[in-house]
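Researcher: Sequence recovery benchmark, item below. Answer with residues only.
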């Protein structure tokens, strides 16, 4: 599939679930547009679109914790990406945690 055939939202964005390729651990979720996805595919490292800063960012650009892309998959509806990576550095989360999913939601 060509990246243009993916289903982007009204802002031109598509969610990208980032997963550690070897362990299956979900590291983070971020947003991509067609250009950041192209940058990711061309460089072999994850690039995203920051909704708050309205600019592109390469994961690990300031922290050094980069994500080397192993594979990019898309779901059956072509509206969500799964980016399998090798995480370099301490962690994927901006808090310093290994994954952004480190807090548990309890029922109360």
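Model:
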């Amino acid at each position: 599939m060509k990246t243009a055939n993916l289903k982007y939202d009204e802002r031109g964005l598509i969610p990208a679930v980032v997963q550690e390729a070897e362990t299956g651990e979900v590291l983070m979720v971020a947003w991509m547009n067609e250009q950041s996805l192209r940058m990711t595919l061309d460089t072999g490292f994850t690039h995203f679109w920051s909704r708050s800063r309205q600019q592109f960012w390469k994961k690990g650009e300031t922290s050094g914790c980069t994500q080397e892309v192993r594979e990019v998959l898309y779901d059956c509806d072509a509206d969500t990406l799964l980016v399998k990576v090798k995480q370099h550095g301490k962690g994927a989360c901006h808090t310093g945690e290994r994954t952004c999913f480190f807090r548990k939601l309890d029922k109360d």
